[in-house]
Design a protein that fits this description.
Layout: E1 4-11, E2 20-27, H1 33-43, E3 48-52, E4 58-64, E5 69-70, H2 74-88, E6 91-97, E7 100-109, E8 112-117, E9 123-126, H3 129-139, E10 153-156, E11 160-163, H4 170-173, H5 179-188
């Protein structure tokens, strides 16, 4: 078992009940993949970041959901930056991710640590109609639920995401769907 420290943080907030929760594990060397997967499953957040070594401005980072390794996670990177700032101070940390180098700049301001990142080169393309219609069906939505002034798209900044704009907030507030079916569709579409 690898030696490291696990932290539970929330990115994009300064209150414990807001933001996006992320696990951040920091150690001298990354655990083996099976151990990282086990830790991420136990944490139970959407993503847990694993960072090594424990000192310096050049680090390696990997991201795990409770079920698989993922290529990149923005909010877990921000949470990692805040933790690195708390333990190692202000500066720009160079994080070697699976998709390339991601600089994270950390500053201590007004009693809080703030982090910002520069993503890998972003990409954007139209979303295939079959992907959109399958996702809409799984969500229980129709084309009328979409705000087509923002056409369905796929966007990339380290991981591909489907971007759907809705016409009404209640669509997001009342999400209920078959998680396994949505997961299968997303994996098939490389999302």
């Amino acid at each position: 078992m690898s030696s490291g420290t696990l932290h539970r943080l929330s990115a994009f907030t300064d209150t414990p009940d807001g933001g996006n929760p992320a696990g951040v594990w920091v150690g001298e060397a990354l655990p083996d993949p099976e151990e990282m997967q086990s830790i991420a499953c136990a944490v139970g957040f959407s993503e847990t970041a694993f960072v090594a070594p424990t000192t310096g401005f050049d680090r390696t980072i990997r991201y795990y959901s409770p079920t698989t390794e993922i290529s990149f996670c923005g909010h877990a990177t921000i949470a990692t930056g805040v933790m690195l700032g708390k333990t190692n101070g202000d500066g720009t940390y160079q994080l070697a991710t699976m998709v390339g180098m991601v600089p994270v700049t950390v500053h201590h301001r007004d009693g809080r640590y703030q982090a910002s990142l520069t993503s890998v080169e972003p990409m954007h393309k139209s979303a295939p109609e079959l992907v959109v219609s399958s996702i809409l069906e799984t969500l229980g939505w129709t084309q009328r639920d979409l705000d087509l002034t923002i056409p369905p798209a796929q966007a990339y900044a380290g991981a591909w995401h489907l971007v759907l704009a809705v016409t009404a907030q209640h669509r997001l507030n009342t999400l209920k769907y078959d998680f396994e079916r949505l997961k299968m569709l997303m994996l098939q579409a490389n999302l």
